[in-house]
Write a structure and sequence with these properties.
The structure holds 3 protein chains of 3 kinds. Chain A has helices at 21-27, 79-95, 110-118, 153-161, 197-201, 223-236, and strands at residues 3-8, 11-16, 51-54, 61-62, 73-75, 134-135, 141-144, 167-170, 177-180, 207-209. Chain A is α+β, with helices and mostly antiparallel strands. Chain A folds into 2 domains: 3-77, Ubiquitin-like (UB roll) (Roll); 85-225, 2-Layer Sandwich (Alpha-Beta Plaits), CATH 3.30.70.20. In chain A, β8 (167-170) and β9 (177-180) form a beta hairpin. The two termini of chain A are 24 Å apart. The mean pLDDT of chain A is 95. By secondary structure, chain B is an alpha/beta fold. Chain B has 4 domains: 2-103, Glutaredoxin, CATH 3.40.30; 128-338, 3-Layer(aba) Sandwich (Rossmann fold), CATH 3.40.50; 348-431, Ubiquitin-like (UB roll) (Roll), CATH 3.10.20.600; 436-520, de novo design (two linked rop proteins) (Up-down Bundle). Chain B has helices at 10-14, 17-30, 71-84, 107-110, 128-133, 138-146, 149-159, 171-180, 201-208, 210-224, 238-253, 284-291, 320-332, 334-338, 371-378, 412-417, 436-450, 456-473, 479-495, 499-503, 506-514, 516-520; strands spanning 2-7, 37-42, 53-57, 61-64, 100-101, 186-192, 226-233, 269-274, 315-319, 348-355, 361-366, 388-393, 399-402, 426-431. Chain C is elongated and about 50 Å long. Chain C has helices at residues 14-19, 27-38, 43-53, 57-66, 86-89, 93-104, 146-154; strands at 78-83, 117-122, 134-136, 139-141. The model of chain C is unreliable at 1-5 (pLDDT under 50). Chain C is an alpha+beta fold. In chain C, α2 runs antiparallel to α3 (43-53), α3 (43-53) packs across α4 (57-66) and α6 (93-104) packs parallel to α7. Classes of the chains: A alpha+beta, B alpha/beta, C alpha+beta.
């Protein structure tokens, strides 16, 4: 395997050819915030949190899909990028109804963590207070659209890993919404295997176990990568 | 022999050209003059704001606003002339009771240079024989029988043709990139998803001379090594869709599309794909997704469509007008084309001139023609005694050029320097009555509604920007809101995933640049 | 016009499925035909399309709902549309929308519960020289005035 050397925030980093800037940075201990990205799922580069500056490129590039190349000079935490990340988080907070104090994911929420990291202590933009429903039709799980940030992890895990494709994104723009089946109550969708992977990968409290109350959702999305690796190695085994 | 050409494009049809043609046909058959007066429906004749338009051959006169009731007297006058004199040059003794004969010495006509539209308005777009009679598919035949694909690409590169869809990427370079990609099964796509509001150039070309576009596509396919193609057209263009379907059928029947073209080993098949109402599908990667039957959401580039396009195959995407330029470039040569227009922007550009303008319609002018020439001379300025305030180009991805900069030449770089873009050719004239803040809010609402929703800055940012603009319009905003508008606008441009979001703030930033006073006047007193 | 056939079997679509080899790529083409034949995309129809193309239900609904032109309920008897292309916008479209909203008792984007009328906008009809434009059912109003539109609306069949 050939190796590429690049510079990330002034540090020389060696990385495998074919790796992304995000992977190279994480290996080198440089944290780049992400939300839609999850190891084990196809990347979509939609949340724009992981945008980085690359010398010689006029445009900001999403680290999650940008491949490393020899001599690349990357900046991941310039004042400009910090401001952008804070605004992205603000846009997400003002778009939905995120009330941490009453959320099942309080304390274990990636959106909340990112908000702390980027220093978003208040929103400069007005909250939109959308009117969104909650789906409690599934016997074990619930979906609160108020907390959904449309990262599409649930859509991807259900399609790419579970193979059920219960979820998809419907409508468009600000009207986008995660739907189950033909935009029907989750509990009535035959294709659902009740596996709970969508709940596991959800970065917020949008998908949750029924019965969990404030702060009780303790999912670990990184379990997905472990699961993928385990499956892979079993397939490889003689 | 006399000829009557009646515009049968959507604009004139809406103004009653169908009834006019029907009345003329009745009058001709009643006088048993069918073999002496040829009546044909044609594509766009230009000054759409004066339709229905009727052209007379061999005189070349153009009549505007003729009423069907005048058909009888017109046919009678033509019959009289045919009877009395063999001299075709005798002026016709006829004047319509309503409507008028247009002065073809007017700048609207004189300043045009028709290359893309050279046969638009001359031939019946539903008749392949007429198209072939003026040379359709002649360049395809010539190329297939004597040129290598590399020669075609080189000729296009030398011509300096740049993409007419908006961004102005060099067409020859795009072709060369796709040609270099490995694989025998490449795809050529014609982007006919003309979505900019106020733009109808591509509609007119497709309605008036569809075979011109098909020929350009087949030549492109030969040059890049593609065997299949798609035309992606917006569903709103019903007549253009109908004409394209017919044209494709005719071309297949006559061996201009399909296997073993002109007895060579080269073949190319073509499918029409009709959009379903999504502006973002004009973006290349969204367009590919939509052709594949998916949600029209863009994906990050690279990989570019040239590497990974429809069905994972290397794909060339050009717009309608770009393909329509191919045949004349090959016919007259790259040098001829490169000599038209400016050094950096060769050839002509078709514009749809609308809005607060006296004489609107479809015009084709050499690149480098000034905006003033198009808007003030050809379009004759704003009606009702009002002065032009600005000209909007590039639709929701473009901006406004203020009246005092109308001396700007129409080329890619000059427009970019002013904070707007050439775009696909929509040109909306705005007079003094136009509220520039309301216009910015209008375009932001458009982008908000058309955002695909995939990336956060575009999905949520356009909503916030629109909210801020509405606040300003309502007179409830402060200087801090205006600052936030600019900061957030810059952020959305810098961070959005595709061109829609990256240019959504442009109309707003452009009006802020030239008409900041309009904004400041609406702010609350501190 | 809807073709006469048992709607629950959606037989009219079979030829279309065949022509496209039931390829998932043809989903949008199939949806166009489905709407043309059966006037709107009911859940039963979407379920049928999903089954015939072997696609997940959520993908079919997710795709269809992305596009403005697909309907999920029967079209209203009177479909009232205001063009909001740029040329129309600066020459009176906002006033026409207001007149429509008042005359129909509907907000833009809404459809009356009894299916009598719907009010929507179109991005650009592409015949900008006649702006502002409205369309009611199959008729286009060119250089439409507010007064003329009010009379037109009053004449709509109940």
């Amino acid at each position: 395997m050939s190796v590429r050397t690049l510079r990330i925030d002034g540090r020389d980093v060696a990385s495998a050819d074919g790796a992304t800037v995000l992977e190279a940075a994480r290996d080198a201990g440089v944290a780049i915030p992400t939300l839609c990205h999850l190891e084990g799922l196809s990347p979509v580069a939609a949340c724009r949190l992981c945008l980085v500056e690359i010398e010689g490129s006029g445009k900001l590039q999403p680290a999650c899909i940008t491949p490393v190349s020899e001599g690349l000079v990357v900046h991941t935490a310039t004042p400009r990028l910090r401001e952008i990340r804070r605004t992205v988080i603000e846009l997400l907070f003002t778009e939905g109804n995120h009330v941490c104090a009453v959320c099942v994911a309080n304390g274990h929420c990636e959106l909340q963590d990112r908000a702390v990291e980027v220093g978003m202590d208040h929103a400069r933009l007005p909250y939109r207070f959308p009117d969104r429903p909650v789906d409690l039709s599934h016997p074990r799980f619930g979906l609160d659209h108020n907390r959904c940030i449309l990262c599409s992890r649930c859509v991807r895990v259900c399609d790419e890993v579970e193979g059920a494709h219960v979820w998809d994104v419907a409508w468009r723009g600000e009207h986008c919404r995660i739907i189950a089946g033909l935009d029907q109550p989750w509990g009535t969708v035959d294709a659902c295997t009740d596996c709970g992977k969508c709940v596991m990968v959800c970065p917020t409290g949008a998908l949750f176990h029924k019965g969990d109350s404030e702060g009780e959702k303790h999912e670990d999305p990184s379990r997905l990568a472990a699961l993928q690796r385990a499956r892979h190695s079993r397939q490889e085994a003689p | 022999m006399s000829g009557l050409r009646c515009c049968a494009s959507a604009g004139c049809l809406a103004r009653g050209s169908g009834a006019l043609m029907g009345a003329l046909e009745t009058a001709i058959s009643r006088g048993q003059l069918g073999d002496q007066i040829q009546l044909r429906p044609v594509g766009c004749l230009g000054p759409c704001s004066q339709g229905p338009l009727l052209a007379l051959d061999p005189d070349g006169d153009l009549y505007a606003g003729v009423d069907p009731q005048d058909a009888e007297t017109l046919v009678a006058a033509l019959a009289r002339r045919l009877h009395q004199s063999s001299d075709q040059a005798t002026p016709l003794e006829w004047a319509p009771a309503r409507g008028e004969r247009l002065d073809l010495r007017a700048p609207f006509f004189q300043r045009q240079r028709r290359i893309v539209l050279e046969h638009c308005g001359l031939i019946d777009p539903t008749d392949l024989e007429q198209a072939i009679a003026v040379g359709a598919y002649g360049q395809l035949e010539r190329v297939l029988q004597g040129w290598s694909p590399e020669q075609v690409v080189t000729e296009l590169q030398r011509s300096g043709l740049r993409g007419r869809g908006g961004a102005g990427y060099p067409t020859g370079l795009k072709w060369a990139t796709v040609a270099r990609m490995p694989g025998a099964r490449k795809v050529v796509v014609c982007n006919a998803d003309e979505g900019d509001p106020g733009a109808f150039m591509d509609r007119a070309v497709l309605e008036g001379d569809p075979h011109r576009v098909l020929e350009g596509m087949v030549i492109a396919a030969y040059a890049v090594g593609a065997d299949h193609g798609f035309i992606y057209i917006r569903a709103e263009y019903e007549l253009a869709i109908e004409r394209l379907r017919l044209a494709i059928e005719q071309a297949v029947d006559r061996g201009r599309l399909g296997a073993a073209l002109f007895g060579t080993g080269f073949g190319f098949t073509l499918e029409l794909r009709v959009g379903a109402g999504a502006y973002v599908c004009g973006e290349e990667t969204a367009l590919i997704a939509s052709i594949e039957g998916k949600r029209g959401t863009p994906r990050p580039r690279p990989p570019y469509p040239a590497e990974l396009g429809v069905g994972g195959r290397p794909t060339l995407i050009n717009n309608v007008e770009t393909f329509a330029n191919v045949a004349p470039i090959l016919r007259e040569g790259a040098d001829w084309f490169a000599a038209i227009g400016t050094a950096g922007s060769s050839g002509t550009k078709v514009f749809s001139l609308t809005g607060h303008v006296r004489r609107g319609g479809l015009v084709e002018v050499p690149m480098g023609t000034s905006l003033a020439t198009v808007v003030l001379d050809m379009g004759e300025g704003s009606p009702h005694g009002s002065a032009v305030k600005a000209v909007q180009t590039g639709g929701p991805s473009g901006g406004c050029v203020p009246a005092d900069r109308l001396d700007t030449p129409l080329d890619y770089e000059s427009l970019q320097a002013l904070g707007t873009i050439m775009g696909s050719g929509g040109m909306v004239v705005l007079d003094q009555s136009t509220d520039m803040v309301a216009l910015a809010a209008y375009f932001m609402a458009f982008c908000r509604e058309e955002s695909c929703g995939k990336c956060v800055p575009c999905r949520a940012g356009t909503v916030q920007l629109h909210g801020l603009l509405k606040k300003i319009l309502a007179g409830q905003a402060s200087q801090a809101d205006l600052d936030q508008l600019e900061t957030l606008g810059a952020m959305v441009m810098d961070t959005s995933l595709c061109g829609l979001g990256q240019s959504a703030p442009k109309p707003m930033l452009s009006t802020l640049r030239y008409f900041r006073g309009d904004y400041l006047a609406r702010l609350e007193a501190p | 016009m809807p073709v006469p056939s048992k709607p629950e079997s959606f037989m009219a679509l079979e030829a279309i499925f065949l022509r496209h080899h039931r390829s998932p790529d043809s989903l949008i083409e199939i949806l166009h035909h489905s709407q043309k034949f059966y006037s709107y995309l009911s859940d039963d129809l979407l379920r049928h399309v999903a089954a015939r193309l072997q696609l997940p239900l959520s993908l079919v609904k997710g795709t269809a709902s992305f596009y403005h032109l697909f309907r999920f309920q029967p079209p209203a008897r009177h479909r009232c549309v205001v063009c909001t292309g740029t040329a129309c916008q600066i020459q009176g479209a906002p006033a026409l929308i207001a007149a429509m909203e008042e005359g129909l008792g509907l907000k833009l984007g809404a459809r009356r519960g009894d299916g009598w009328a719907s009010l929507s906008e179109v991005r650009c009809l592409g015949t900008c020289s006649d702006s502002p434009l409205v369309q009611i059912d199959d008729s286009i109003g060119r250089q439409q005035t507010v007064a003329g539109l009010r009379r037109w609306l009053q004449e709509l069949e109940p």
